[in-house]
Amino acid sequence: MNYLETPLQELKDARLDKAGVRLLVKREDLNHPHVSGNKWWKLKYNVSQAVEEHHDTILTFGGAFSNHIYATAAAAKEVGLRSTGVIRGERILPLNSTLSFAEQQGMKLQFVSREAYRQKNTPAFKDELEKQFGRFYLIPEGGTNSLAIKGCAEFAEKLKEIDYNYLCLAVGTGGTMAGIISSLKGERKIIGIPVLKDANFLHNEISKLVHDFCGHSYGNWSLLTSYHYGGYAKVTKALLDFVSAMKDRHDLPLEPVYTGKLMLAMMTEIEAGSFPRGSTLLVLHTGGLQGNY
Ligand SMILES: *Cc1c(COP(=O)(O)O)cnc(C)c1O
After folding, report:
1. If you measure from the C-alpha of residue 279 to the centroid of ligand 1, how many angstroms do you get, rounded to a whole number?
2. Of all atoms in ligand 1, which is nearest to the CA of residue 142?
3. Confidence band (pLDDT; 50, 70, 90) for 292?
4. Staple 22 to which of 73, 135, 141, 280, CB 3.0 to 4.6 Å?
């Protein structure tokens, strides 16, 4: 897949000056027009594995607004593979912009009931899909598997030359964070902002992903689990106002599902004095802007 080098954007803001903190945003949202942000890194080795194993189809799962579905459809098309998206819920016409884009990329959309969707990780469900669609390369919902973590570890490798103390990112499945933890090997500090409610399970989940991937455990990371603003894809007026202010005042495009929550969480923590003066925060813009359109 094509990759564009991405800039670092330094945020200039009175609240940062007051706290004596620098905030750098790695604009990884700009790495590809469609397979953007962390999705590019999560798909990189999966796509090449699918090609190597002579698959002609990638099959994956997601909700109707999924960045992962959107990115997988575009990635498969770019490397000349077919794709199938198993989508939770009914087909509602007209399709929203995420699903109509996926279909334009050639993705076959298979809508399944919420009850059936819950069975998606069972062998019986996979057999059923194989009967229907033939052989395919399977990527789990959210795109997290060991090849995705490998890609995210490589991304973190690229960030090592930047001078920072804290690396901050939004967390869904935790796959991206697991790759970053594995790559940094205990150096610097990593702060994850889960975007879903009741995210305490992610402590164990991420520890396990890291250990399974690299055989080590590290203690230089933490999750701040109270910045979900009501739950996954839930928003508050304050969050939406913040997202539009970041665009207007700082020319920083965010969306309310992942990066808006992340950035508001970081600004709140900075104002609360959570970081020593003189600290530099590196905040990852993991993309997802398709959801805004
Ligand atoms: C998918 C996504 C995430 C979450 O990544 P995980 O590896 O599942 O934790 C974060 N930010 C954006 C913009 C995403 O699309």
Report:
1. 25
2. 8
3. confident
4. 280
> How far does residue 42's CA lie from ligand 1's centre (Å)?
9
Give pLDDT, residue 291: 80
Mean pLDDT, all residues of the chain:
97
Burial profile 194-207: b = 16 or more Cβ within 10 angstroms, e = fewer: bbbeebeebbebbb
Q: What is the pTM of this model?
A: 0.97
Neighbouring residues of 3: CB distance < 8 A, sequence distance ≥ 6: 31, 32, 40
Residue 214 tokens, joined: 């690299």
CA angle 231, 235, 237 (to 5 degrees): 145
Q: What is the mean pLDDT of residues 175-181?
A: 98
Ligand 1 pocket: which of 29, 43, 67, 181 to mutate (most atoms <8 Å of CB)? Answer: 67
Where does the pLDDT of residue 12 fall: very low under 50, low under 70, confident under 90, or very high at 90 and above? very high
> Distance, CA 258 to ligand 1 centroid (Å)?
7
Q: In ligand 1, which atom is closest to the CA atom of 170?
A: 10
Evaluate: CB of 179 within 6 angstroms of ligand 1. no
